[in-house]
Amino acid sequence: MPTSIARRTTEDDITTEVLRRFEATADPRLREIMLALVRHLHDFVKAVNLTEDEWLAAIRFLSETGRLCDDKRQEFILLSDTLGVSMVVDLINHRELEGATESTVFGPFHREGAPEMPTGGNIAPRDADGVPTIITGRVLDLNAHPIGGAALDVWQVDSSGLYDSQYADSDQLHMRGVFHTDGDGRYTIRTVRPVYYAIPSDGPVGRMLRATNRHAWRPAHVHFVVSADGYEPVTTHIFDDADPYLDSDAVFAVKDSLICHFVRHDESDDASRQFALDPPFYTVEFDFVLKKVGLT
Ligand SMILES: [Fe+2]
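^ inputs. structure came back:
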């Protein structure tokens, strides 16, 4: 028998050999990502001396995370959000704002097909317990000129702290709508005051939070994707400045520039007449600023 060539069998040999196999990747960006992924993943496994039981637990954790994903639930986005990865991706991709509205996480609860709403349309028609709230403002360019015809895709939890997709009749859309600005760049949305809520904790992400002594609460917010022809869209939230979880958001998504004051109206006033609302209700104002496409 010929003498066999020594195989690569040490921990570091394997890393070297795996990196070598990816060396010929034609796409330079894919090559960069795969080489870095292997380096960091192997370093991580070696740094913690991962046991075989822990490796299997990780495989089961990720498998279950995948099994829980469908068109109404996205456990992988939740995992990315709770590990802070979503916010790191957000921050490195939006370094050059130049005065445009700051972005934040997309989250796992956006749904396609939200109804087109008129100015002042109510996205919370079935929420009898929530306190009516009017969100108004403008969509502007970097020079404070109004952008007419901008679209605002809006979604939030109801006053029970749940998204429509978390109910038994989850095919019913609620607490969602697509609004458009008028010629002055103005929009008006009727909803209920957002509440703080716990992210879904009945899956692997919830188990991770409990095992690591972390809470699942997100501060009260309303989600927006604001877009207009010729401008970079922004995926963001507005937050309630009275919320107790602003400093410990389970998904690390709070930015100071997105925190708003919700004004309470307990008596009839100009706002109640303007929006045809009986007190008590809240109003909140927020202007979105978009940057032209290609502006760096
Ligand atoms: Fe949310």
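Residues 28-47 form the longest helix (20 residues). The chain has a mean pLDDT of 94.
thumbs up if we can close this ticket
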